[in-house]
Write a structure and sequence with these properties.
9% strand; 2 strands; mainly alpha; 113 residues
């Protein structure tokens, strides 16, 4: 999956900022994406296992069952200080999360298209 997203990054890099969503649970997956060139940063949405479980359980018709969460959390490698990552709490409202991402992009002088 990381290689496929890397292809997307390369294909769209000339058009400005690109937003892709993926889990990138492990650093090596994020490294594959970074290798594609361009300025790249990650938004790490941080939340407790209890809150994640509650949200997954409330979803209907989604492929990710809450029973898979523990294995995903076990595999998770939280972005390190040397990675370009913005950590946000999922306790915030989605509008607030978006505002924080846009503020970060603005501070980094990255224009979303």
């Amino acid at each position: 999956m990381a290689r496929k997203l890397g292809t997307e990054i390369r294909q769209h890099a000339h058009s400005g900022a690109v937003v892709l969503a993926c889990s990138s649970l492990k650093r090596r997956y994020r490294d594959v994406l970074r290798e594609q060139g361009g300025e790249l940063f990650f938004v790490y949405l941080d939340g407790s296992a209890d809150l994640l479980t509650a949200r997954l359980s409330a979803r209907q018709g989604h492929y990710m069952r809450s029973s898979l969460l523990q294995s995903q959390l076990k595999d998770l490698e939280v972005p390190s200080a040397d990675e370009a990552a913005l950590t946000l709490s999922i306790q915030e409202h989605p509008d607030q999360l978006l505002a924080q991402v846009l503020e970060h992009l603005s501070a980094a002088k990255i224009e979303p298209k």
